What we know:
Layout lengths: L5 H23 L15 E6 L6 H16 L3 E6 L4 H9 L5 E5 L11 E17 L14 E3 L6 H12 L8 E3 L3 H10 L4 E6 L4 H9 L2 E3 L6 H5 L7 E5 L1 H4 L4 E13 L4 H13 L1 H7 L8 H4 L9 H10 L2
Parallel strand pairs: 1-2, 1-3, 5-6, 5-7
Antiparallel strand pairs: 3-10, 4-7, 4-8, 4-10, 9-10
Amino acid sequence: MLPVSRTRNAARARQHGARVAVLLVVLLAMPGLGGCGDSPEEVVRIRIATGSPTAVYHAFGQSLATVLNRELPNVRAEVMVTAASAANVRLLETGEAELGFTQADVLPADPDPAVLAVARVYDDLLHLVTTTESPVRTLADLGGRRVSIGAAGSGTEITVNRLLAAANLQDAKVQKARLGLDDSVAALRRGEIDAFFFSGGLPVRAVAQLARDTPIRIVDLGAWTEPLRRGNPEVYVMRDIPRSVYGIDPVTTVANPNYLVVRADLPEPLVRAVTRLLMERRSELAAAHPAAGRMSPRAAIATAPLPLHPGAAAYYRASKP
């Protein structure tokens, strides 16, 4: 991800200034966030940048939007289908979204101050999916084969490029396709690719659907966790995909945290209210996708390298995680 210049950030901040002032007036009129009794007609728009319609970000985002629309007067939350992590961060940087999901490894060591964290929400597990008839049984077997590395602008693409570099599988050795999750599944079914990568919380619905009608294998990537950690010690961890998730042989793979992130210029009362509902409605969010149920206030504050938004920090201080 290429960082947006600080000059452009300052210009956007000035452009957003008038909007933020209006948001503050509206928020002060919201029950529980201010002292005014009348409810103005203006609405606060919250665009949530997610990912593919069959991936975890989208399911989580849809459920979160439902909660926000129901419980925050004057708020209209809506979900955006995107290429996921890197694209989501850019949408926040340019003021085209208010909330979004991103993998931690997408973020630079010196992140753009236009984007702050709300919470660490769950871990993404890297899937390398192929068919049971495929000769691809290890990462090294991808040499000379057609492989989808994720949509352009996705967190999957960033993780996979680091992984392939660590394995010395450069562009000349792997025929890369940049396809989103749904297109990757369709291309594997048609035999147009030999395998695809996708990074997501368990279970990834599109992979589960594929496993029900197509004999597939997920390649074990656990041995590559340490090589990836050498350059990113605070990001990558080793996680298991048990047999119970997809009904196929269990594997160990590389995982990294996911964050819910927010534009830095959103008012503190609004972000505090969003953070409260994110934590207090975990069971409802988990009904949309089990990954959401793994959140906790104590774990949520670990969002390096992003600092927490002041509204989120205020909630966590008050809840004493």
